[in-house]
């Protein structure tokens, strides 16, 4: 700095250096952006991740979904509802009798169950369910039986058998129908092997009458 420098000259020098520093920073940012673009990476703004996912089961946690069976345009269909713990057949049937919820109705599902004059009672055994109805079971149509049998078979039944291997019997006013199993989208009578020495493919167990 010479003796001729004045305070005005020194302030001008400081301003010039700041301007040069800003230009250099801008050039560096431009160079980095160019390098990223050359690697196929386009610079973007910060992206929000959004809300964390909910309702996902922890690893190793057993499935506890409830399967209720209603009717849709193409026949009997299952409706899955999430649950914290597995439910037994009686609990599942109570939910079934309340009918489809709003989301299920939007899918075109409905129930054909009649309004029963009293509560249902359910007993279970190893791979077996007995549903006692407050009415003559013979008066129950096959579509209603399909709903009851398939919903009960897909609940938590002792023995941990597959739903299609759970035998369900309907009882009401001393009349028994079944045992039946839920196969596909219908309830079918259980076929017992024929006694040794007789002909035929088997006999129907119980008084079914399911169409």
On the 0-100 scale, what is the average pLDDT?
Answer: 72
**Main beta sheet: strand number and arrangement?**
5 strands, mixed
By helix and strand content, what is the structural category? alpha+beta
Total DSSP E strands: 9
- Work out the radius of gyration: 36 Å
Run of helices and strands: HEEHHEEHEEEEE
Strand content: 15-25%
Gross geometry: globular
Number of helices: 4
Helix content: 25-40%
- Determine the N-to-C terminus distance: 109 Å
Order of adjacent strands in the largest pleated sheet = 3-4-5-6-7
Unreliable runs, pLDDT <50, ≥5 residues? Answer: 22-62, 194-211
Description of the molecule:
The chain contains four helices and nine strands, in the order H-E-E-H-H-E-E-H-E-E-E-E-E. With 211 residues, the protein is an alpha+beta fold. Helix 2 crosses helix 4. The C terminus is likely disordered.
